[in-house]
Design brief:
Elements: H1 2-21, H2 23-47, H3 54-69, H4 77-93, H5 99-117, H6 121-128, H7 142-169, H8 184-204, H9 212-237, H10 252-274
Helix pairs in contact: 2-3, 2-5, 2-9, 3-4, 3-5, 4-5, 6-7, 6-10, 7-8, 7-9, 8-9, 9-10
């Protein structure tokens, strides 16, 4: 617990500083996190019996992040990158002498690359989210920092609410074959916490807080599914953590797993319902 507290005390201010700077610093931070998460994800896939091509998969994931950082360079480039990635990984998988291994390599590499590259939606949200009205309480943040802050605090509030309620009131466990510590009470506590925080942030960004009644639960449930998805990968690999990079917290993938699923969900909602 002491290690977790020390690590959090160091990491949280750094993350908030990067978010405050925004722009290239934020893109660089997302790229670094994606690369480190890719290393861990491909290591887990290999341990689970799915032999990937880590270097090629990591390069593909970083290409997706780069595309998100500069969305105006090429129209439809995300889909194009995905298509090129499938082709390149397919060609590389031909080097496996057993076609069964080649197919597993092809699937595992594409899966790993797409999985960790979902973090790029932090950048896509910042670029595509609607402008903040000049009279909004948090107008000084700007659209990029404001909307990404909403996403970050939504995920953090879910994790905090679910942990506190689950630890003190949790009785009814679910999906114990994936994560034995998860409880229905914790899930409800996390959803409530996220909804309240998202409502406050929407108000601060000059938006109708009523959106939180849908966006809050969506963000919370997406964060929980992201956590469970990584737990599935770790279970299959026989690992308790994705890595040891962060003392008391495991690896980078352990820290961003909820964001991988929450980021595209929040981005879609904001673009469709609020824009």
């Amino acid at each position: 617990m002491r290690q977790r507290a020390i690590s959090a005390a160091v990491l949280v201010p750094v993350l908030l500083l990067v978010l405050a700077i925004g722009g290239p610093a934020l893109a660089a931070a997302v790229a670094l996190a994606t690369a480190l998460a890719a290393i861990e994800a491909f290591r887990l896939l290999k341990a689970a019996g799915y032999p990937p091509l880590p270097a090629l998969g990591t390069a593909l994931a970083l290409a997706v992040v780069l595309d998100a950082a500069f969305p105006d360079l090429l129209e439809g480039s995300g889909l194009l990158l995905g298509a090129i990635g499938i082709v390149l990984v397919a060609v590389a998988s031909f080097t496996r002498l057993d076609p069964h291994d080649g197919l597993a390599t092809w699937i595992a590499t594409i899966f790993g690359a797409v999985y960790v590259s979902l973090l790029s939606f932090l950048l896509r949200l910042g670029h595509a989210a609607p402008a903040i009205p000049p009279d909004a309480p948090a107008a000084w943040l700007g659209a990029e920092r404001g909307w990404i802050l909403l996403l970050v605090l939504a995920v953090w509030s879910y994790d905090t609410g679910a942990y506190l309620v689950g630890k003190n009131l949790g009785r009814t466990r679910f999906l114990t074959h994936i994560s034995p510590s998860k409880t229905i009470e914790g899930l409800i506590g996390g959803v409530v916490a996220t909804t309240v925080v998202v409502g406050l942030l929407l108000w601060a960004l000059g938006q109708a807080p009523v959106h939180a009644l849908l966006l809050g639960p969506l963000a919370a449930l997406a964060a929980q599914v992201g956590d469970l998805a990584e737990s599935t990968l770790k279970r299959a690999a026989g690992a308790s953590d994705s890595g040891t990079l962060i003392p008391g917290h495991g690896g980078i993938l352990d820290r961003v797993d909820s964001f991988l699923f929450a980021a595209p969900v929040v981005t879609l909602y904001v673009l469709v319902a609020i824009r």
